[in-house]
Amino acid sequence: MNQVDYLRISLIDRCNFRCQYCMPEGVELDYILKQQLLTDEELLTLIKEVFIPVGFNRFRLTGGEPLLRPRVVDLVSAIATLPQTQDLSMTTNGFLLAPMAQNLYNAGLRRINISLDSLDPDTFNQIIGNQGRSRWQQVWHGIQAAHHVGFNPLKLNVVVIPGVNDHEILDLAALTIDKQWHVRFIEFMPIGNVDLFGVRGWVSSADLRQQIRDRWGLTESQVRGFGPAEVFKIPGAKGTLGFISQMSECFCDRCNRMRLSADGWLRPCLLNETGQIDLKTALRSGTSTTQLQEQVRHLLAMKPEINFKGRDSGIVGTYTRTMSQIGG
Fold it and tell me: pTM to 2 decimals?
């Protein structure tokens, strides 16, 4: 396996959207109480005294919606200025981004992923579960602001849902032609949510690539990120196209990450709940950070087995948390 040096950090489990694939319709969400969230101080202690010493140096801030976290710019600055931080990025739905983009950039954030599942406002509203005022335009403003400020790479995440937005693949891919934007097509992962879009609730990356190849041609890109995306580009395009194929093509052997929930649970595998550690409770009960380091090292040693054990349970089983509560 790759060296595991990348930590996805959920800052908050709340979100101002309710996307179908992230917060299943009809599911009552028990949001984490404020006092149960890791405080800024606790999170920074874990990063500096536990995660960095055992080899983590790349961090991604997620949610829920991370821009809902109070004082998020200060937190970005604190992580970005650590000398051991080699990479700091964020995934956001972009709704609150426009007025915050410059401050986030000034604080040291350089890479950002923005969810954009449709270019059609009505389809977009359907996906995000919004029954009121359209939010597409404000998200688009956030994307434009991030581009203007200079985030590079600026990635747009597209969860492809058959019968909902799969007819927009070429329009979304075309965003990479004239701008140095990087569109990432993600196969829908039915985490404990297998009935949401029927028996075949996902479209394979191979099918998407063929559509794009038939229209413009498609070549492998020399650009490689830190994640599981296979990267291609339309000939002559400024940006790239990535395909994250967790359903059709197992990439467990290339996994380089763990996930920390907003309430301090360290999760070694997205598709498997085995081996999670409650770091917050341990920290608050007085467990030393040296002891926590040893627990994390032990989990790192177990991760290869955990990755391949019961992978399908995430597809057909019952999860104790939704994707929004895990942190994606």
Answer: 0.90
What is the separation, in whole angstroms, between the first and last Cα of the chain? 21
CA-to-CA separations, 295 to 180, 212, 257, 289, 291, in angstroms, rounded: 41, 46, 16, 10, 6
- The label of the residue with tokens 């070429």 reads 170
Q: Are 280 and 39 in contact (CB under 8 A)?
A: no
Residues in the chain where the model's pLDDT stays below 50: 314, 324
Cβ-contact 125, 93 below 8 angstroms: no
pLDDT attached to residue 53? 98
| Cα 250–Cα 255–Cα 258 angle in degrees, nearest 5 | 125
pLDDT tens-digit profile of 237-255?
A: 999 999 987 766 766 777 8
Quote the pLDDT of residue 133.
Answer: 66
Order of strands, sheet of 265-267, starting from the edge strand that comes earlier in the sequence: 219-220, 230-233, 240-244, 181-187, 154-160, 111-115, 87-92, 58-62, 6-10, 257-260, 265-267, 277-278
pLDDT value of position 245: 77
Q: Is 120 exposed, middle or buried (0-12, 13-18, 19+ CB in 10 A)?
A: middle
How many C-beta neighbours within 10 Å does residue 286 have? 7
DSSP 139-180: HHHHHHHHHHHT-SSEEEEEEE-TTTTGGGHHHHHTHHHHS-
- The Cα 93–Cα 172 span in angstroms is 16
3-state SS string over 181-211? EEEEEEECCCCCCCCCCCCCCCCCHHHHHHH
**pLDDT at residue 193 in the model:** 53
For residues 195 and 214, give the distance between their C-alpha atoms in angstroms, rounded to a whole number.
32
114 near 92, Cβ under 8 Å?
A: yes
Summarize pLDDT for 166-178 with one digit per residue, the tens. Answer: 999 999 999 999 9
Return the percent helix, strand and coil in the chain, to nearest 5: 35, 15, 45
Q: Cα separation of 300 and 302, whole Å?
A: 5
